[in-house]
Design a protein that fits this description.
This protein has 173 residues and is of the alpha+beta class. 26% of the residues lie in helices and 44% in strands. A 4-stranded antiparallel beta sheet has the order 2-3-1-4, covered by helices on one side. Helix 3 runs antiparallel to helix 4.
Length: 173
């Protein structure tokens, strides 16, 4: 059993998800993780699938999606994990809001990286002049979350945006 990363990017239209997942199901692949969104009117999807197929077989099965040139499809093997996920982590939610300007994501992610934090999900949106980012972040258990939050607020203040870091609720639906 192997893991394959699949990406589909391009001009949005109805049915992309249905067509892509039908092609994967037709190969007998199991959809393990996914994220799908619209970015300024362009469709973007990333999937991790498991099964006994090669990336070449996946690209072949999904080739009809890209036939008109409006979508790009890729598939690649996902290497085995090296055990990096074995350290003790604490989940947090990071929010950023304020006037748009270059460097916001770079500044806050730099603070998190310096603390050993790992971003597991990041969404950004620009609405008019308002920039909003929301991230799920894992901090190492040994990290001083209050100090990280203070550094994030300082970085945000330099950019003129508000930044908060709070523990993530771990209740499952």
């Amino acid at each position: 059993m192997s893991l394959i990363a699949v990406t589909v990017i391009g001009h949005d239209r109805p049915g992309i998800i249905a067509d892509a997942t039908a092609g994967l199901a037709g190969l007998g692949l199991n959809l393990e993780d996914s994220t799908m969104t619209l970015l300024r009117g362009h469709f973007a999807m990333m999937l991790i699938c498991s099964g006994d197929r090669s990336p070449e077989q996946v690209r072949e099965a999904l080739a009809p999606l890209a036939a008109d040139g409006r979508l790009q499809v890729s598939a690649a093997a996902v290497p085995d994990e090296d055990g990096a996920g074995s350290r003790s982590l604490r989940p947090y939610v990071l929010t950023v809001h304020g006037g748009d300007r270059p460097g916001i994501v770079s500044a806050v992610t730099g603070v998190l990286a310096a603390a050993g934090g790992n971003i597991t999900d990041l969404t950004t949106r620009l609405t008019g002049d308002l920039y909003v980012a929301v991230a799920e972040v894992d901090l190492p258990a040994e990290a001083d979350a209050d100090a990280v939050a203070a550094s994030l607020r300082d970085a945000g203040a330099e950019l003129g945006v508000g930044v908060t870091l709070r523990p993530q609720e771990t209740d499952v639906l």
